[in-house]
Amino acid sequence: MPNVVEPQRETPVAGSYDVVVCGGGPSGFAAAVAASRGGARTLLIERYGILGGTATAAMMVEFGSIHDGRQRIVGGITREFMDRLIARGGTILRDVGSYQMTFDPESMIWLCLEMATEAGVELLLHT
What is the pTM of this model? Predict the structure, then answer.
């Protein structure tokens, strides 16, 4: 296999981080918030200008598999996110035992930004 040889060059470093998360969808958002809350200097890089991934950008407005018929089975940042979304009226929780939760994508976008900012996550959007 042939090799490509590049000449030496100086490349400016834009920042120094303990954790860099690529993708601001639900998993990337939660990973960045968790890392930052844990004390890591964290950068979250997102292609678009909003967080939430397909859930917000494509308006897939339902969280599924959140209940096992007896109790909610999500915890941690996901549980906190859902509780905060409910508190601000950004969701329709059909009943206590519902297996899914329908949400307003704009409410999710703002809550993702709010939680990331509160945690001290640095954002690089449109990248």
Answer: 0.86
Please tell me the CATH code under which domain 19-124 is placed.
Answer: 3.50.50.60
Q: Which two tokens stand for residue 83?
A: 């509780």
Identify which of 53, 38, 43, 50 has the alpha carbon closest to the alpha carbon of residue 14: 43
Query: Over the stretch 34-84, which tens digit does the pLDDT of each residue have?
Result: 999 999 999 999 999 999 999 899 888 888 778 777 777 888 999 899 899
Residue located via tokens 């890392």? 35
CA 40 – CA 53 distance, rounded (Å): 23
Parse the chain into domains and list their residue ranges: 19-124
The SS3 call for residue 62 is strand
CA R_g for the chain: 18
Q: How many other β-carbons are positioned within 10 Å of the β-carbon of residue 25?
A: 17
